[in-house]
Amino acid sequence: MSGNLLNTASTVTCPHGAQARPSPGRHRVLAQGSPAVTTADLFTVTGCPVTAAGGPGPCTSVRWTGPSARVRIDGSPAVLQSSPGACHSVGQAPQGPAVVSVVQQRVVGA
C-alpha cells in the first residue's frame, strides 16, 4: 500500500464530522514543512456530535492500521493517506472510519 504521508497539517475527521488532531512526538522528519505523523502519535477527536444516550458516546480518538511498511520515523511506521483509521469512543467502542480529506502532496511512502 502506498500513499502520501500524513503530517500535522493534514485534515482528518471522524465519520460524524468532528476534527481529529494529532499530538505528535518531536519528530525531526517534515513532510511539506510540518512534522510527519506515525502510529505512535495520538489523534484526539474533539467536538463529535454523537451523544451517549443508548450508544457508546462520541468519538474521542483515532487508531491507525495498515501504516507504511517501509517508512519508519523514530522507529514507528509512518501513517499514509491510504492507511485505514478507526475512530473510537472513550470506552474504546468502534465508531467508524476516520476520513482524511486534505494531505500534503510532496512526500509519498509505501
What does this protein structure show overall?
The chain has 110 residues and is mainly beta. Helix content is 0%, strand content 40%. The strands form four sheets. It has a seven-stranded antiparallel beta sheet, with no helix packed on it. A two-stranded antiparallel sheet has the order 1-13. A two-stranded antiparallel sheet has the order 4-5. Strand 2 and strand 3 form a beta hairpin. The chain starts with a strand and ends with a strand. The mean pLDDT is 90.
- Tell me what portion of residues adopts beta-strand conformation: 35-45%
User: What's the shape?
Assistant: elongated
> Over all CA atoms, what is the radius of gyration?
14 Å
- Could you estimate the helical fraction of the residues in percent? under 10%
Low-confidence stretches: none
